[in-house]
Amino acid sequence: MNKKAKSLDLHGIGCSPGIYIGKAYVVKKTNYNLPRYWINNKEITSETERFLSALEKASEEIEKIQEKLCKFEGREQINILDTYHLILQDKRLRENTIKSIKEEHINAEWALYKNAEKIKNHLIQHGMSHLKERANEFSDIQERILCHLLGKNKASFTNLPKNCIVIAHDLSPAETAQLIKYNIGGMIIEVGGTTSHTAIISRALGIPCIVACHQASSTLLSGETIIIDGTHGKVITDPSEMLIEEFTKQQHHDFELKKIFLKETHLSAETKDHHRIHLTANMELIEEIQSIKENGAEGIGLYRSEFLFMNQKKLPTENELFKSYQMILKSIYPYTVTIRTLDIGGDKVLTTYPYEKETNPALGLRAIRFCLKEKAIFKIQLRAMLRASLYGKLKILFPLICELEEIRRAKEILNEVKEELYREDNHFDNNVKIGVMIEVPSSVMIANELAQEVDFFSIGTNDLIQYSLAVDRSNENVDYLYRPLHPAILRMLVQTLDAAKKHHISINVCGEMASDPLYILFLVGMGFQELSMNALSIPRAKRMIRSITQKQAKKLFQTAIKLTTASEINNFAKSQINKLFAKEPYILTL
Amino acid sequence: MHSEKEFILKNKLGLHVRAAAQLVKLANRFSSQITIYKGNLKADAKSILDLLTLAAAKNTTIKVTCQGSDAKDSLNAIENLIKNEFHEV
Predict the structure, then answer these.
(1) A123: which chain B residues are within 8 Å (Cβ-Cβ)?
(2) A241 and A327, same structural domain?
(3) In this structure, are A117 and A188 located in the same domain?
(4) Which pLDDT tens digit goes with each residue over A29-47?
(5) Residue among A89, A131, A140 with most chain B CBs within 10 A, to mutate
(6) How far is the C-alpha of A292 from the C-alpha of A299, rounded, in Å?
(7) Domain containing A128 — which CATH number?
């Protein structure tokens, strides 16, 4: 292997497997709503200085990257960087921008934008064909300067080239959702953990993704060819032809393995001693339906419905929602679709809703709390769901319930909606099952009471772990504390399961925990009969379940629950799985 | 002092980014004002953005004018660069 190339590699946590070779696209934090304002005579000097200092900072930034590169002879990148430097020093951009500040009395951001756009358009219109591509690089520079003028802001994805590998410091769920409208080959994020939203979405879409990849966005350059290895959490920069060939081979190999798994998708997830487990899919985007069916899911166990609300200029209408729900229900029939009502707030916000800044959004106005406050929005969604219920099998799930009154209030509103529909002579299925998400410790403690209010439970392990262990899963400093096999979590799962059994209601696990090969056997051993996970994990889960007995799984879990620390349980799980699947080591990596 | 000369661009891509970058770097070493003409269009040789908008492809005729105390030296240097086809490999 090429040593020089190796020393430039970046490492992170692989959170969506697979290999992709493509061009990097570094997302700079820029602002859509460019600040535009007029300045007075006295401010001209300070505004000019602000602009010049931003230019200087951008130059320094490029220099830093360049220094790093020189050591490894990344000639192509150095050439690009040279050009960046020349543009940053260029008289035309510099002088025209300062002239605009002085003569038009406008702020630096506006002046920069005006002149940069002028130059860019000129390049596009008059430049030679291959120069047009340079307009992208020029945009990158423009963004870098703007970034220094503004400090932090929203990411912009205009100019996103097709099949690129997106690199960013962090992406909000809203930004990720916006991003996936484009065809992208992979994602590299500097912060976050394996259960962050970017990770979940990239797994859902089958795009390789690496999180906690420090300094990726300052080290990598838009336009350079890189290899992302989402299985091992590795980014290879400046790859040699040999490496590209090697990874292309690996890519094919993975693809072949997947095909083998996919051949078994029509078989049921049944243990050797004939315990039937239902594997359903988690869904965020309607685009995933195809993959959900291909991977052999028996319905949708969790449809995160907020994605139809995010990144919209205005709220979706009842009819728009109805049409989407109808389509989903129809395509999944004869299986069931569980729609979770809006889980807005926390890190997912509506662009259409005037949010107050919360100091602690995870504990703030979100999910059912938001819906109970914004009853009108909630009702629109419930109406659309009920109307769609005639076109398939629907279940409604209410998130973040932490006390009885909340579920009772939600049920009241649901009944109001039903009344209204009756009166309007709108038809719907009156037997739609309703359930609560068990995702805060308090709901576990009152599971017996909750079970008497609803038809089913769905355990959202991601949030349950976050709230129980008081750990933000996207904070890289405490990420290590996020441990699904913490004895407290296992005991809560058992307690919830017992309550469900006692009151004869159904129960499933729908967090990321359900898809991890390390945890699946324990969940089966505990006695769960339905697991909902991202569609891509289903074939593997099925293979695992089909190769063990329920008795084996039960025994494993009984040993594990007696252990007292998360590490002990984790090590035990690993050793057992390695033993059980010694002949299929890829089961843990794929 | 004023010097000027016409050249035909013989390198493969003409005055593309890398070539333009080389030209800017070279021009910046001199104090003279250096201007590149392509027909009616003119560009400051010390501005990469200016040069790029000239869109001078292969076989384009360009005129280089240098105005200043080191006009002659700068023209010689630029002539060298163009004749060496911008050191393209």
Answers:
(1) 49, 52-53
(2) no
(3) no
(4) 554 567 888 899 999 999 9
(5) A131
(6) 8
(7) 1.10.274.10
